[in-house]
Amino acid sequence: MNIKPNRNKFLTDLNNAVDIFIDKSKNNYNNIIAITHNDADGISSLKIIQNLLHKMNLEQDYFIYNRSSSWAAYLKGILPKSYERKNAFIFTDVGSSLTELIPIISSRKEDFYILDHHEVDNKVDLDHLPENLFFVNPTVYGYDGLDHIAGATLTHMFAKRVKPAIINQGWLTIIGIAGDSLRSMDKLKSFNKEIYEEIVNEEIIQDKEGLILFGAMNDNIKNGLKHSILPFVKDYGGENEQKIKSLLSELDIDPNKKIVDLNSTEINSLQIKTHISKGNYAIIPQKQGLLQHAFEHALLLNILSFKNISAALSMIQQKSITRYAQGIFLEYINSLSSNLKILSNELPHIETKKAIFIDAGNGKIPPSNWSDTASFSTVNDLLNPNKMLFLGGLEKKTQMMKLSIRCSRNYLKSHDGYGVNNVISKIKNNFGGMGGGHKLAGGLRLSIPSYNKLKENVDNLL
Q: Contact 187/282 with Cβ under 8 angstroms?
């Protein structure tokens, strides 16, 4: 059931948490431990918090949570056994698995701040949270965690209220927004839009208009048509160079011309021949090359987060991309555009009345690409938008089925807002497993027997 967003209640929650944090930081806290998610939104949120704590002269540490284990198992090695120093924990872009976290937090003496934009399990009684938990989540008040407010947006709003100078780190926020919203900047909504416009007005980033080929905005038009993942350009995405050059020759466009340098005549010609649209994109002035483009920067962080988290944390502070990261990005974007083509044309689909199951564990699509392949296939409407997508396969490390679950915005509209997060909760209640997510996107790990039961009963759950 959709809830009408309640701005006042959300901001009251946020301001209360800010006031408590400011008050307690003066005398109570010796050390702050930040815990975040391993993606662009999570890393951006972490860096915002680290900058805030630095400005407050507070000692700090951080940990990255990838949701591959339970909170109890993960926090066992983090929570101190003694209370010699007063610690506080700040969770950003993670932490709405309150059914797992509340018993842990209730048994501790430290303060816990959770700044999250993932949907909350409806079994949680938010009116009776532990006294040492300060929980801020806009989805509780009707906001969408993807369309309306990214994790970095929420973290930015919290940090800026504590220290207004955090606005100068707004480029971090834009990376988080770009990586989580999967939209051109002119299509942002609610708090994402407000914060974006504020940061543009402060001239911390630049807002540009042009042809949108996200994933390749730093490249030439020849590579852009092949490697764009938002949109995935049907008939040209993942295709050979000869076919793309033939199109550009027909339109009298230099294949090596930069996408951002295309003139209005060239853009109009491409729009007539393809479904590409014009839109707005964000430029980070102090960075160079690929890292200047917020979407591509975020995508690089997402890629590195699963391959080399240290490299991801280092890259967000760099002005230009390293050769190592450049190679990984090009390999990934070429692979993903090919994967979208493979998903569209080659992978067998098991379709029920309400769902689509795709086994990507056959080696054609690497496991590291499952999540993004699922996301971008849904965003680009490559499959039936009226059905929920379950894409994944056997994870060798855990010997469990790892699923990326997605639905379209049209699906949400036709199902009264009942989305992926609701389905994941229902699956866990019926078949077990670990996972969570938003209305449009989420992840789940299930045992093989539970996965088989899910396929048999999925239409009853949707």
A: no
Per-residue model confidence (pLDDT) at position 423: 94
Please report which confidence band the pLDDT of residue 417 belongs to, taking 50, 70 and 90 as the band edges.
Answer: confident
244 CB-contact burial (10 Å; exposed 0-12 / middle 13-18 / buried 19+): buried
First to last CA, the chain: 14
Residue 181 CA neighbour count, 13 Å, CB half: 28
Of all helices (H) and strands (E), which one includes residue 378?
helix 370-379
Query: Per residue in 188-219, pLDDT tens?
Result: 999 999 999 999 999 999 999 999 999 999 99
Q: What tokens were used for 403?
A: 């699923």
Q: Could you tell me which of 181, 202, 201 has the C-alpha nearest to residue 191? A: 181
Q: Find, among 450, 408, 407, the residue nearest to 428 by Cα.
A: 450
Within 10 angstroms of residue 355's Cβ, the number of other Cβ atoms is: 21
Output the pLDDT for position 83.
63
Burial 405-428 (b: 16+ CB within 10 A, else e): bbbbbebbeebeebbbbbbbbebb
Q: What is the pLDDT of residues 307-333, one digit of tens each?
A: 899 999 999 999 999 999 999 999 989
Q: How many C-beta atoms lie closer than 10 Å to residue 190's C-beta? A: 16
Segment holding 400, helix H or strand E: strand 400-406
Q: Return the amino acid letter for 103.
A: P
Give the residue carrying structure tokens 């872009």: 93
Distances from the Cα of 429 to the Cα of 60, 72, 123, 201, 458, angstroms:
37, 19, 11, 46, 13
Cα–Cα distance measured from residue 283 to residue 174, given in angstroms and rounded to the nearest whole number = 9
Q: How far is CA 224 from CA 276, 281, 445, 462, in A?
A: 11, 15, 34, 37
What's the length of the chain? 462
Higher pLDDT, 227 or 122: 227
Q: What is the mean pLDDT of the chain?
A: 93
Give the Cβ contact number of residue 352 at 10 Å.
16
| pLDDT reading at 2 higher than 90 | no
In a 13 Å sphere around the CA of 266, the CA atoms on its Cβ side amount to 18
**Three-state secondary structure string covering 195-246:** HHHHHHHCCCCEEEEEECCECCCCCEHHHHHHHCCECCCCCCCCCCHHHHHH
